[in-house]
Amino acid sequence: MFLVIGATAHFGRQTVEALHEEGRPVRALTRSPEKAGLPEGVEVVQGDLAVPETFAAALDGVTAVLLVLPYGLDATAFLEAAAKSGVGRIVFLSSGAVADGVDEQADVIAAYHAGVERAITATGVPATMLRIMFPAINSLAFGMQLQGGDVIRGAYADAAFSMIHERDVADVAARVLTGDGHEGRVYELAGAASLTQAEQVRVLGEALGRPLRFEEVPDRPLREQMGEFMDPDFVNALFDLMAATVGRPAPVNSVVEDITGHEPRTYAQWASEHAGDFA
Ligand SMILES: NC(=O)c1ccc[n+]([C@@H]2O[C@H](COP(=O)([O-])OP(=O)(O)OC[C@H]3O[C@@H](n4cnc5c(N)ncnc54)[C@H](OP(=O)(O)O)[C@@H]3O)[C@@H](O)[C@H]2O)c1
């Protein structure tokens, strides 16, 4: 039995579907089973990582766990319960911001994910870290602005990311959960190509049949604006990570293809599949 945490959001949902399509027994943990909307045949279990009483039912008979966590959620108690219940493998969707071999991580995003990685390692359960940097789903944040016109205003037009498709992350997760030889490995997953934000918006425009363009605006007011409804340290970490990529093409590698046997999906493919999300 494969247990997926974060099964109702982007990466976990796609992984549940990938495992289910392969005919694997898969259990999806959610706080609200009635809203899960997962394929028939997927076992949906009510659970909450903040409520230890829900762990036993979730972990019953589980051989491997995919852990996708909303930023900041403490998974320590769940990890200890997973180790005790005999889970044989943990796969964690981590962040490319994590730096190895440093005493202190550079920002709160890196520190959070490094902390979870350490907590997983401390359980002694064989584990694999899948680190991603900027997933293509981050472009969904453009949706609100696109309702008002064809211009996306944001910081750092030349920030460059190798945007990874959530299904590629899921395909890798499914292989790592079900196959051998990945224990103890840290994989940096990258998309098909490095694209600047200005290029992403142009590609998105082609998919939507609209002449979209990115207009760069100063970052300071945006940081302050976002910091009013999100943790300011998180916002600053995000902006700093973006700023650090300006003028530097994002790394592209063969990890997705090596593990899944197929090339990473392009951002253009992601954009055309998600066109409906911007309608
Ligand atoms: N976006 C990025 O730039 C980026 C970059 C690197 C890494 N990542 C990783 O990807 C993660 C985001 O993944 P995502 O967008 O798929 O998910 P998400 O939207 O951040 O999280 C929502 C998921 O978490 C579950 N959840 C929330 N609170 C829970 C709780 N107390 N107990 C159990 N489950 C809980 C929700 O399940 P229910 O509501 O159904 O209970 C839902 O499935 C980030 O936190 C990070 O670790 C993201």
Could you describe the 3D structure shown?
The longest helix has 16 residues, at about 110-125. This protein is of the alpha/beta class and about 280 residues long. It is globular, with a radius of gyration of 19 Å. Helix 3 packs parallel to helix 4 (about 110-125) and helix 7 packs across helix 11. The model has no long low-confidence stretch (mean pLDDT about 95). It is built from eleven helices and eleven strands. It starts with a strand and ends in a 6-residue tail after the last helix. The structure holds NADP nicotinamide-adenine-dinucleotide phosphate. NADP nicotinamide-adenine-dinucleotide phosphate (NAP) binds next to helix 1, strand 2 and strand 5.
Short summary:
The chain has 279 residues and is of the alpha/beta class. It has 11 helices and 11 strands. The two termini are 38 Å apart.
The main β sheet shows up as:
7 strands, parallel
Radius of gyration: 19 Å
Mean pLDDT: 97
Gross geometry: globular
Output the structural class.
alpha/beta
Helix content: 25-40%
Which CATH-level-2 architecture of the domain at 2-134 and 164-190 and 252-262? 3-Layer(aba) Sandwich
CATH class identity of the domain at 2-134 and 164-190 and 252-262: Alpha Beta
Q: Name the CATH superfamily assignment of the domain at 2-134 and 164-190 and 252-262.
A: NAD(P)-binding Rossmann-like Domain
What distance separates the N and C termini? 38 Å
Q: Summarize the helix and strand pattern as letters.
A: EHEEHEHEHEHEEHEEHEHHHH
Distinct helical segment count: 11
Q: Which band does the percent of strand residues land in?
A: 15-25%
* Number of E-type strands: 11
Lateral strand order in the biggest sheet: 3-2-1-4-5-6-9
Model regions low in confidence, pLDDT < 50 over at least 5 residues: none
| Unique ligands | NADP nicotinamide-adenine-dinucleotide phosphate
